[in-house]
Amino acid sequence: MYFSSSSQKFRWMVLGLATGTQATATFVTYGVGPLAAIWQQTFSLSQAQVGLLISMVNIGPLMSMLFIGRALDQHGERWIVGVGSILLGLTMGVSSLLSSYLSLLVTLLLVGIFYGTAQPGGNKVVIKWFDSSQRGLATGIRQAGIPIGGALAGWLIPLLSVRYDWPIAVQLQASSAFIGGLMFLLIYRDPVKESKIPTQHVNFIGELRNLSRKKSLYPLLFSGFSLISFQMVLVAHLMLYLKSKIEHMTLVSTGFMLSLCLLFGMLGRITLAWLSDTIWKGNRIKPLEMILWMSVVGLVVLVVLPEKIPIWCIYVVCSWLGFFGVGWYSLYIVEIGEKAKEHSVGLTVSYALTINQVAIIMAPFFFGLFVDWSNSYALPWIGLASLLSASGIWLRKSSSIPFIEKRMEFNTPISGQNTPHEKRKKNRKIV
């Protein structure tokens, strides 16, 4: 048995802890989206400059995540995730004292560097504590921390900024991340194993080279690139789009729509991941294909929204966009984690997330630049729908490879277990 009776109970507490830490960290980073709309008025910024604010907070993880993934494989999650979240809160708190656009950009870069500990660390917690029969559900619950944090940011930050001032909202973000990191540091422990696997020393550059050569990963990585672009554009530009497109919508009401979108994203992350465990029997690719095409449908509807439309219709559209355009992430992460070797789960997840960071950085900025150039949102939305369509076609073609063969090639054994191939290798060494 991988878990003792006590750890069977404690793992759900660990899952709640990891989810809460992720939510408080995301409350900071996703809160930059609503704050950007406020900073646009405060600092008289263009759409491209607003997009650069979103991009800057995501350059940090691009710089740090691979090294963090390697450190997680070598040293575990407790100190890296806990201290990272504490530093995230302290750095964000500094931004409430700033009064210039340039200093804000530099501070947001540091915020992003410390946020780089949350995603790979939390995903490795799930890989450690849950086996493959429940990993989709557990990942979905943990990943729900992202839309929870984002939804709170979309609701609270505009509300506090309008009633008081934006530094008050930033201070709330900072204290939340600090407390989340402190709780993780004090409570989290690794699972107790009955048998320990010797630590494997693998060359960092060599492991990265091996990952980059796995061509069978390319369609999945491109799907992640496309979907995270869609998700981040929603976070950064949905409020501004609805405010400019729909009559009688205010900053507070558009913030509520973003919150609704992210709340349905939370529901999607849990529901779709659970269905992949049950209905699809561990196949994550089929639901990912469906998500891509449902996201395209949502974008088309978003483009053709009339200026005068019943409010319930906007609720439906935002809920649809959130369920699929934000709810995809758990499926993607658990698929990447299951394809990793046991000794390099952190690095493999960080590798995929680093590629995603490129899209996270580029998408909001270039989408805003495209809006400025075309003086319209229609063409940028259509371009994004085309990217998702291309990804869906490529993923569909790649799924013609039998699912069982792909799973045999990449499946990650639960800690404490050996694959038949590993057992044969050990037997040869004994002889």
Task: Give a structural overview.
InterPro entries: MFS, MFS-Transporter, MFS_dom, MFS_trans_sf. It is found in: Cell membrane. Residues 11-401 form the Major facilitator superfamily (MFS) profile domain. There is one protein chain. The protein is mainly alpha-helical. It has one domain: Up-down Bundle (Growth Hormone, Chain: A). It is built from 19 helices and no strands. Helix 8 (145-163) runs antiparallel to helix 12 and helix 11 (218-245) runs antiparallel to helix 17 (378-398). The two termini are 28 Å apart. Mean pLDDT is 81; it is low at 1-5, 194-199 and 402-431.
Can you summarize this structure?
The chain has helices spanning 5-29, 32-43, 47-75, 78-95, 101-115, 118-129, 135-143, 145-163, 166-187, 204-212, 218-245, 251-278, 285-303, 311-325, 329-338, 345-374, 378-398, 403-410, 420-430.
CATH architectural label: Up-down Bundle
The count of DSSP E runs of length 2 or more, i.e. the number of strands, is 0
Mean pLDDT metric:
81
Helix content: over 70%
What is the number of helical segments per DSSP (H or I, 4+ residues)? 19
Q: Given the helix and strand composition, which structural class is it?
A: mainly alpha
Cα-to-Cα separation, first versus last residue: 28 Å
Largest sheet: none
The radius of gyration is 21 Å
Identify the CATH class. Mainly Alpha
Keywords: Membrane, Transmembrane, Transmembrane helix, Transport
Transmembrane segments: 12-32, 52-72, 79-98, 104-123, 144-162, 168-188, 217-242, 254-275, 287-305, 311-334, 346-371, 377-395
Pfam families: MFS_1
Subcellular location: Cell membrane
